Amino acid sequence: MYQLKTKETDEDVIMFIEKVDSVKKREDAYQLLDIFIEATGYQAKMWGTSIIGFGKYHYKYESGHAGEAPLVGFSPRKAKISLYLAVCDPNRLNILNDFGKYTTGKSCVYINKVADIDIEILAQLINSSISYLQKKYPL
Fold first, then answer.
1. What pLDDT digit, counting tens, does each position of 19-60 carry?
2. Regarding beta strands 108-111 and 72-76, do their DSSP bridges make them parallel or antiparallel, or are they unpaired?
3. Res. 2: pLDDT tops 60
4. Exposed e or buried b for every residue in 50-87, given b needs 16+ CB within 10 A?
5. Nearest residue to 22 (alpha-carbon basis) of 11, 30, 10
6. Close Cβ partners of 5 (under 8 Å, ≥ 6 residues apart)
7. What are phi and psi for residue 84, nearest 5 degrees?
8. How far from the centroid of its chain's Cα atoms is residue 27's Cα?
9. Which of 89, 90, 88, 73 is nearest to 32 (CA)?
10. Residue 1 has what pLDDT?
């Protein structure tokens, strides 16, 4: 049976950030930490080995696969900073229009640095994602 790899852990978020090689990425991680805490009202938790998540929800797909995931989060990766926001949020694309410099992948929004984006728009993306996920997957 499939085992979910990305689970909430007891690892220390600050210790994880302190291990980020790039000084600039480390500074950006601390800035994002503050933005996400303020926007969500949740404390940061490590998910797996490299995702800093905020809040959580329980999902169950039509296939029967179920699990828990952070409502939103980020990871200061080597190449880019990954922002974990609800992919299916119908407001996401409209909000991203004014976000700044970013790229997207299958499930993430990627930024090079915090200075490339509008922080107020990031807060809107965070809140929209949380609202969408909490409606889609009520407790």
1. 999 999 999 999 999 999 999 999 999 999 999 999 999 988
2. unpaired
3. no
4. bbbbbbebeeeeeeeeeeebbbbbbbbeeebbbbbbbe
5. 30
6. 48
7. -100, 105
8. 17
9. 73
10. 44
Sequence-separated (6 or more) residues with CB below 8 Å from residue 6: 47, 48, 51, 69
**Phi, then psi, of 102 in degrees rounded to 5:** -160, 165
> Which two three-digit tokens encode residue 22?
């790039």
Please, which residues bridge with residue 47 across strands? 8, 51
Structure tokens at 34: 């503050």
Q: Global pTM?
A: 0.93
Residue type, 54: F
Question: In Å, what is the CA distance from 112 to each residue of 27, 73, 100?
Answer: 13, 16, 11
Residue 27 neighbours by CB distance under 10 Å: 15
Inter-residue contact 129 to 93 (CB < 8 Å): no
